[in-house]
Amino acid sequence: CFACIAKPPALRPPSPALAPAAAGYLMESSSCKGDSLRPPVPCKHLVEKKTMTNPTTVIEIYPDTTEVNDYYLWSIFNFVYLNFCCLGFIALAYSLKVRDKKLLNDLNGAVEDAKTARLFNITSSALATFCIILIFIFLRYPLTEY
């Protein structure tokens, strides 16, 4: 390349064909302030070769958040059909928090909220099922017969 071949005369070594007086003149001109303040320009090809010989690959690894269950469908079912004392609504809120924390890669928070959503879903399902069974029992055997 032209930048590699054509260098300022002060940076080129003197050729042996020059007379000793001319070589002395070149040495004196190399001590000039203008040339000493200017750093030598590195060859662009050497910089490209350095970057091409050491390729690096960056792999981003995210924690696997697909293993955290958010109990979303169970929460919706409890909210719509078995919303005993608003426990289904609370379970749905925690299920949505689990989904948000999974998107933010907060695995510990997602696991904790998933446990809470599961607890509210179990409680809501159990209490609602118990109430439904009691209703069927009292419909089958009214209190007036006792």
TrEMBL record:
CC per GO annotation: plasma membrane
Keyword Lyase appears in the UniProt entry: no
Superkingdom of the source species: Eukaryota
Stored InterPro entries: CD225/Dispanin_fam (IPR007593), IFITM_antiviral_protein (IPR051517)
Any Pfam family hit: CD225
Chaperone found in the keyword field: no
Keyword annotations: Membrane, Transmembrane, Transmembrane helix
PANTHER family: INTERFERON INDUCIBLE TRANSMEMBRANE PROTEIN, INTERFERON-INDUCED TRANSMEMBRANE PROTEIN 10
Protein name: IFM10 protein
Classification of source organism: Eukaryota, Metazoa, Chordata, Craniata, Vertebrata
